[in-house]
Amino acid sequence: MRRALLPILALSLLIPGCKAKELEEKLAKKQQELEETERQLAQSKQDNKRLESENQSYQERITQLEGELSQVNQQLAELAEKQGVTMKELAELRAEKAKREAELEDFKKVFDGLRKLVDAGKIDVTFRKGRLVVNLPNEILFDSGKSKLRGEGLDVVAQLVPALNSVGKRDFLVAGHTDNVPIKTARYKSNWELSTARAIEVTKTMIEDGYPPNQLGAAGYGEFDPVASNDDEFERAKNRRIEIILMPRLGEIPGMKELLKG
Question: Does residue 47 register a pLDDT over 70?
Fold first, then answer.
């Protein structure tokens, strides 16, 4: 495209007066358009690289869970061959295997249901602190300093709910997060209040869209659980987010009742 502009420049040198000035202005405008196109292309490549990395993180977690299932199966086989193995030990391993399989199946259902939104760049699905997390960036949800969902945010939440419902009776925590820039308005005295209000707003919208209220919770973390450095605006934007977290099924921990009683 740069080579295509050279004839215009050469021609402008041969044409006097207004025509030369007009051609120079056109050349400058085309140059600006070229630079903007190159900037958008660079940003697009960067976004695609980030999405590929997050999808890879999801696949790595699936691979890890499948490896754990394989290990449990091997332990079951080894125990079955050994003499003296108790029925209790065998039952505990089988229960652990069933729990891992159910968790893996739920992860797959959530991710498959949200694949279109992930591919469109609206949301991210990742693993954080050992939990499946649906990450909604703030720019599609709220205006700065506000807790009312924008139209695009309402649409995204409406598309989320069917996918989350597909995993059955599972609990989700809606968590609000901000960057570290202090806020102090008549309505919100700190980022704690703002992040909590946003989490509650998303939770209420999910309920209106059909998710059971007894399977939802809302929490505000303010700026105290960042995923980026807060060193510049690009990094701070990553921290302004809503996370919808699939809560783990811990089940009953052996010996816990006795410990609490004792």
Answer: no
pLDDT of 5: 45
pTM above 0.70, yes or no: no
Domain limits at 100?
39-249
Question: What is the Cα 68 distance to its own chain's centre?
Answer: 25
- Give the side-chain half-sphere CA count within 13 A for 42: 6
d(CA 72, CA 21): 77
Span 70-96, pLDDT tens digits? 887 777 677 666 655 666 777 777 788
Give the pair of three-digit tokens for residue 176. Answer: 């609000």
> What is the C-alpha separation between 174 and 244, in angstroms, rounded?
5
138 in a structural domain: yes
- Report long-range pairs for 88-97 (Cβ below 8 Å, ≥24 apart): 92/254, 95/251, 96/72, 97/69, 97/72, 97/73
Buried residues in 247-261 as b, exposed as e (16+ CB within 10 A): eeeeeeeeeeeeeee
CA gap 24, 6 in Å, rounded = 11
Is position 206 within any domain? yes
How many structural domains compose the chain? Answer: 1
